[in-house]
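Data card: per-record layout.
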Amino acid sequence: MAIASVACLGSDGAAAQTKADPFRFFEGLTESVGTMKVVMRRPMQTRAIGRGEVEPDGALSLVQRVEDEGHSPYVRRWLIKQAGPRHFVGTMSEATGAVTVDEIGGRYRFQFRMSGSLSVEQWLTPLPGGRSATSSMTARKFGIPVASAQGVVRKIS
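The structure for this 157-residue chain is written out next.
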């Protein structure tokens, strides 16, 4: 089972430019590493290397090479646009519908659905300096938690 992980959209400690345009964090390379626990399975290590680009229309295009322990690497694609103050919408290749992202109290909540009746909620909490964030994800099936992941995402270049 693949669960999304992306770099943070901004940081309270980041430069004013990052706050004004949080997608700039994604330009260049990002890395996401963590541990995922699926019910009735042993924890597995996860890693994704992303290459991001802000398109001329302001949308973020992010392509990640995902390397989950015990699985073949694959590519995940994101396209996210700002839809209003502190609100973003878009798509992700593994999601079965829209992805919504809301900035709440300096943190970012991602919500989307995946095949198998999974609903995913991921919280990214920017760390001081604006170059990394912690990630906490929960996947639910029929309202019952069936997977969780903890990790760190950071800007490489």
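Known properties of this structure: Helices lie at 16-20. DSSP finds one helix and ten strands in the chain.

See the next section for split statistics.
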